[in-house]
Amino acid sequence: MRSIVSMSNACKGHALPFMLVRLRRITLVVALGLNVQGCSVYNEFFGGTPQQGQPGFVSGFLGGVAADEPTAALTARQVLASGGNAADAATALGFALSVTLPSRAGLGGGGACLVYNPDRKSINAGVPEAMEFTPIALARDPGRSDRPASVPMLARGLFALQARYGKLPFDSLINPAELLARFGTQVSRAFAADLAVVAQPLLADPGARAVFGPNGTILGEGGRLVQPELAATLSALRVAGVGDLYQGTLAHRLADGSALAGGVLTMEELRGALPRLAPALELRSGNDVVSFLPPPADGGLAAAAAFQSLQASPQDAAAAQARAMSVAARWRQGGGDPQAILAAQAPAAELPLLPASTSFVTLDKDGGAVACALTMDNLFGTGRIVPGTGILLAASPNAVAPPLLAAAIAWNRNIHGFRAAVAGSGQNNAALAVAVGMSNALKTRTPMAAAVPDPGRINVITCSGYLPDDNRSCGWATDPRGAGLAAGSN
Questions:
Q1: Which pLDDT value is given to residue 346?
Q2: 3-state SS assignment for residue 258
Q3: Gap between the Cα atoms of 97 and 228, Å rounded
């Protein structure tokens, strides 16, 4: 008792003037079963200055986040409040989405992110660059499975993003997703809508039925989504590292069970599944530069083409969409230099109906920003969970036309300041949505001045006075027609 009381007097700002209050606090310590060893533990429960990695470490302006699913968005905001930067927040958000919105993001899928740090001394010298981890088709003949799958890319992609740009311990960013999977989370409106679309096919798989329809009926909004096998996988990634999923015990388990989930994964394919770092596509807009995701995230290329069209004819969204489709089709037909494709006149073309994706944007207090688009290459991927892992495999891009993964960041090269970030989804309109959203943000100096054309949806963060110079000019928004959340503090 004396050691706890004397510690309360030693910790600055926590002298307890009354014995009654002192005894109550001592009782609380004993009741919680705490091994109190210093002021830091005491302060965690009784007040004081939080340490980096603890909620409340950052006060005042935090930055912001906007995403298609609320729980994942709040997870990212908590990271910002704990002293994490935009890359840390994006990493935690991506893993959280694999639990709360597995229809569109998951360990079995992939995606692409644009990353910006305004500091000229940063690893990317103050210029946005892309971290791409799009799903890769299996080398085996797709005919061997009725639901061909792709190589899982999300975990390695988020690890590479955080290792290059983040600052918090990586395991601390997986932990929120692990807890959500283990103890459960409420089914959001966004996820419930996806579940309703594919209810019957999803329940056909025993693994998926156990998770998404445990009583034979698909979960509805507000239902409890518990994923113990996925929690165990996330725990292994947190403890053993992401490499375990690609060349360790988890990798062997994934390869052995993959045939039951729509694919025949090999250890060679898992080991060779590496993210790709690439320079962003750049266009000028007044005094600013707008950077877009480059191929193979060809939604960025399509968004750049649509943005070009809108600069010439601001009110002609139909022409911008036609330009986006023709450029994306041209690249998918034969690849080539993206800048050369943007400069040329591509013939009119259409893409087949494209699958679902999801997007989010994060911004930290120093002006660092991340804009990402994630996908399972189909709603719920193959619809089958690899036994013992909790992982839904994404559909093969050889079997399903991949989505247009689209994101953009506007910044100023002269003052190295952040201006806006937009990421979008919406099947064939995802690229147009990003182009319209960015055009509106730059013109109106607000994050969501008007809706983008259906079925496009966007998440936006803007700082019209640039960041880090003017945090009072910052705002964030998620598409009001969706069921996401924008959160932050200024």
A1: 82
A2: helix
A3: 16
Say if residues 83 and 58 touch (Cβ distance below 8 Å): yes
User: Encoding tokens for residue 482?
Assistant: 């969706």
d(CA 255, CA 223): 32
Distances (CA, A) of 238 to 107, 176, 182, 361, 443: 13, 11, 14, 24, 43
Residue 459 sits at φ, ψ, to 5 deg, of -120, 135
d(CA 416, CA 129): 14
Residues 6+ apart with CB under 8 A from 139: 266, 269
What are the tens digits of pLDDT across the range 300-314? 999 999 999 999 999
Instruction: Tell me: pLDDT of 72 over 50.
Output: yes
C-beta of residue 302 within 8 angstroms of C-beta of residue 328: yes
Burial category of 210 from C-beta neighbours within 10 Å (exposed 0-12, middle 13-18, buried 19 and up): middle
Calpha distance 11→467 (Å, rounded): 37
Q: How far apart (Å, rounded) are the C-alpha atoms in residues 487 and 485?
A: 6
Cβ atoms 92, 76 nearer than 8 A: yes
Place of tokens 């329940």: 203
**Structure tokens that stand for 151 in this block:** 């190589």
Distance CA(141)–CA(396), nearest Å, equals 11
Single out the residue of 370, 357, 459 nearest to residue 409, CA to CA: 370
DSSP string, 76-126: HHHHHHTT--HHHHHHHHHHHHHHH-TTT--TB-EEEEEEE---TTSTTTT
CA gap 11, 364 in Å, rounded = 31
Cα 101–Cα 106–Cα 111 angle in degrees, nearest 5: 105
- Answer whether 170's CB lies under 8 Å from 177's CB: no
Token pair for 143: 């005919």
> What angle do helix axes 86-100 and 154-165 make, rounded to 10 degrees?
160
Token duo for residue 313: 């004819």
Alpha helices in 242-383 (DSSP H): 244-247, 249-257, 267-271, 298-312, 317-334, 338-343
CA pseudo-torsion sign 438, 439, 440, 446: positive
pLDDT band at 229 (very low <50, low <70, confident <90, very high): very high
The answer to whether the beta carbons of residues 212 and 219 sit under 8 Å apart is: yes
Q: What is the mean pLDDT of residues 113-120?
A: 96
Amino acid at 217: T
pLDDT digits (tens, 9 = 90+) for 148-199: 899 999 999 999 999 999 999 999 999 999 999 999 999 999 999 999 999 9
Quick one: how many helices (H) and strands (E) in the chain? Answer: 18, 19
Nearest C-alpha neighbor of 229 from the set 181, 164, 161: 181
At position 274, the amino acid (one-letter code) is L
Amino acid at 434: V
